[in-house]
Amino acid sequence: MKIIEIIISGLNIGVIYAMIALGYTMVYGIAKLLNFAHGDIIMVGGYAICVFCAMSGSRTFFFVSIVAAVIICTVLGIVVERVAYRPLRGATPIAVLITAIGISYLLQSLAQIIFGSAQRYVTVPDLGKIMIGSLGIKWSTIITLAASVIVMVSLSLFVKYSRIGRAMIAVSEDRGASQLMGINVNIIITITFAIGSALAALAGLFYLLQSPYITNTFGAMPGIKAFTAAVIGGIGSIPGAMIGSLVLGLIESICDTIVPIAPYKDAIEFSILIIILLVKPTGLLGKVRREKV
Amino acid sequence: MALLKVTDLHVYYGVIHAIKGISFEVNEGEIVTLIGANGAGKTTTMQSVIGLIHPTSGTVEYDGKTITNMPPHKIVRMGMTQVPERRRIFSELTVAENLLMGAYTEKDKAKIKNSMDEIFELFPRLLERKNQIAGTLSGGEQQMLAMGRAMMTHPRLLMLDEPSMGLSPLLVDQVFSMIKKFHENGTTILLVEQNANKSLAISDRAYVLETGRIIMSGTGAELTESDDIKRAYLGG
Question: What is the rounded distance in angstroms from the CA atom of residue A147 to the CA atom of residue A125?
Fold first, then answer.
């Protein structure tokens, strides 16, 4: 029973990381930039839910708050790309990186100005538990797992079989050649940011369902963890981000249950990142780009 | 009237003056070749024409409209396309998916299907390998795929950047006969080549490019007979 609990808890954390890691990995693969403001999009989504839930306690309004958070984050992601990153296309990677960190601080500071620095309680509804034998599983966990699986499967199908999805693969592989196909790279990058940010809003929601408190640095740690997961899986690879996240979630859950090492779980996770990169610098599913002449 | 007209084009890479004021034109229905050694500026010229590189000055006109500094995806939609140097196929996509990318601007599914059938008829090898990941194709097959991908939208002007590069003599012949076939089907061709012999043989006209300047131009036959060209490019 204990093992099943550990696995379920690990998968729960893992799929939340996956929601975030997908945003990192897709933006990196397609726009070739590390969007370190991605974690703060989660925070904005969290505050959006916080505000909308506070306006009304009813359950139907909770769903409205989810939709609102997704829309707000999507728009924010598009605006950030448009205002901060697009003017830097062709600039050195270090300039883009500093900009990303700047945007991250900007969003955190704005949240602090608007909502203050004290922790806020978010009135998400308590969905209760379901008992399977002696095993109690929270409904929020079931919803998180189910929703994440649906999102990941749909995203994979979208990338593989839709015209826009194929264009995303093409742009990530060769931007110039994609332009020769008539692909408007700017639009593809905008769509990528929109998808990544919408997923970040869902991640914010899933976090709040686990623990309904938020501060302006709410997204920082999940952002870094998910980035780690994306790198473990091989940054730029969509299945890599999913697998890396699940691996990281399970490790975290195992660490949590072993009392003596629980306080060191972050150190353990980041050490595993270093070890994996030493053994396989491209990450688990990352590929070395081969070129045939 | 010229289908493509390039006037006094200059391109700088930082401080390097790569293209020093070249002018040339391609008339509808012609095969025109730019020949020149490595580093003469052939690829830079091609990329400037289609908008992948922004020229410092000069104009590019296509079908009577100025397209200088237009983004490539808009230029491509006007009916001009390019088989880039080193083919640049999408190695993670399958052969069929690569062809679909070539038809990205076409929304009509039936037309896409027809184009794909045509390409498979021209290149039976691609049909055999339809669902294979393109990165696993041989160099010759990749060149066929790059050409097929470019022809998916039936462009009015097809530009090919060193299509014979790195191929065996047999495959080079195939590539040139395919270019002739495209031309017979009504496509205007702008070809960039180091293989002066083969390209001059199929060209109506040609320009010789040397360190960013056009140093000579004429019909394919004239240039083949020119002593300078023979000495510099034809090994005689």
Answer: 17
Rounded distance between C-alpha atoms, residue A182 and residue A158, angstroms:
20
Task: Give the count of alpha carbons within 13 A of A143, CB side only.
Answer: 16
B42 close to A (CB below 8 A): no
* Chain B residues whose beta carbon lies within 8 Å of the beta carbon of residue A169: 90, 92-93
Residue A290 has phi, psi (to 5 degrees) of: -100, 150
Measured distance CA(A48)–CA(A62) in Å, rounded: 11
In the three-class reduction of DSSP (H, G, I as helix; E, B as strand; rest coil), residue B67 is classed as coil
Q: Is the pTM of this model over 0.95?
A: no
Residue of A nearest to B75 (CA): A182
Token pair for residue A209?
A: 């369902």
For A92-103, give the DSSP string.
-HHHHHHHHHHH
Strands annotated E in B129-185? 157-161
pLDDT digits 0-9 by tens, B31-66: 999 999 888 999 999 999 999 999 999 999 999 999
- The values of phi and psi at residue B85, to 5°, are -55, 145
User: Which candidate, B153, B206, B225, B176, places its Cα nearest to that of B30?
Assistant: B206
| Complex ipTM | 0.94
Give CA B46 to chain center in angstroms.
Answer: 8
Q: Which residues of A touch B101 (CB under 8 A)?
A: 166-167, 170, 178, 181, 183
